[in-house]
Specification:
- With 274 residues, this protein is an alpha/beta fold.
- It has one domain: 4-Layer Sandwich (Metallo-beta-lactamase, Chain A), CATH 3.60.15.
- The chain is 21% helix and 30% strand.
- It has helices at residues 43-50, 68-71, 73-79, 115-119, 194-205, 223-234, 249-257, and strands at residues 2-7, 24-29, 32-36, 60-62, 87-90, 96-101, 104-107, 124-127, 130-134, 137-140, 156-160, 163-166, 174-179, 182-187, 209-214, 240-243, 271-273.
- The protein has a 7-stranded mixed β-sheet. It has a 6-stranded mixed β-sheet with strand order 9-10-13-14-15-16, covered by helices on one side.
- A hairpin with a 2-residue loop joins strand 6 and strand 7 (104-107).
- Helix 6 (223-234) packs across helix 7 (249-257).
- The N and C termini lie close together (5 Å).
């Protein structure tokens, strides 16, 4: 298995690559090419070209959730002429998303609706629960909220049937690849809570999470929640912990010193082999 970071918040060693707020990963497994998230625009496409990565033969695209920094670049992928055999999203993906600041609502949505994949003839698959999309490749949705500390902030809201309601991120999906060592779990932002996600995935798959890659959205959280999450992760047999994007600098610093955690910070242009 090979995982390439096409776009991420931080620059890596390859200074020819663009970086910024967003996430796009390419997973190559068992002769399959899976694009996980498409960042906020076309920069991930330019980075792929500079990395010598061919995106013309994708097997699937999956979008963890519909925030712009994970899904807006899907329009660019199609407009640049790339073929997408299947698009996977979670139920509720097309709800309009905002971040609330008093009476101001900042639009966080991807900027496109169901009409876009329809226009380009892309088959759309909406995920509910757990689905095996290829042999040993699973998508997970509907995470059980078992950890009381992992609540979603009230500032994230969405528009449903003309009403503004708190966003519970029930649309968010995660990718799991089943290996001999356990599950390689790839996440976007982990808005439902990374401990909730890991607990859910291990329960429904019957396997332990061997590697955890992606963002765990602790950048605006206090020390109590950060240490709560890191403590929970340290009690598990996670061999590879590749944190990026919305994880937050304070979390990365704490994880580096936390007993029982083997932190591998990943940046734009990094490649992981399993």
């Amino acid at each position: 298995m090979k995982l390439s970071v096409l776009f991420e918040n931080a620059p890596g060693e390859n200074k020819s690559l663009e970086y910024g707020h967003g996430l796009s990963l390419l997973i190559e497994f068992d002769d399959r090419k899976i694009l996980f998230d498409t960042a906020s625009g076309p920069a991930f496409l330019r980075n792929a070209k500079r990395m010598g990565i061919d995106l013309s033969d994708l097997d699937a695209v999956m979008l963890s959730h519909s925030h712009y920094d994970h899904a807006s670049g899907f329009r660019d992928l199609l407009e640049e002429g790339f073929e997408v055999p299947s698009l996977f999203v979670g139920k509720g993906f097309f709800d309009k998303k905002y971040k609330k600041r008093g009476c101001v609502y900042s639009d966080l949505s991807a900027g496109w609706g169901m009409d876009l994949p329809t226009k380009y003839g892309v088959p759309l698959c909406t995920i509910e629960g757990t689905k095996e999309i290829f042999p040993s490749v699973f998508l997970f949705q509907g995470f059980s909220r078992t950890d009381s500390m992992e609540s979603v902030t009230d500032s994230f809201v969405k528009e449903v049937d003309g009403m503004i309601v708190k966003d519970d991120f029930s649309d968010e999906i995660a990718l799991g690849i089943s290996t001999d060592n356990g599950i390689v779990l790839v996440v976007g932002c982990s808005h439902p809570g990374i401990i909730n996600i890991v607990n859910h995935v291990e329960r429904v798959s019957g396997k332990n999470v061997f590697a955890l890659i992606g963002g765990i959205h602790l950048k605006d959280e206090g020390k109590e929640r950060i240490y709560h999450v890191l403590s929970a992760l340290s009690r598990r047999n996670i061999s590879v912990l590749g944190l990026c994007h919305c994880t937050g600098g304070e979390t990365k610093k704490a994880a580096e010193k936390f007993p029982g955690l083997e932190l591998t910070t990943i940046s734009t242009g990094d490649v992981l082999f399993f």
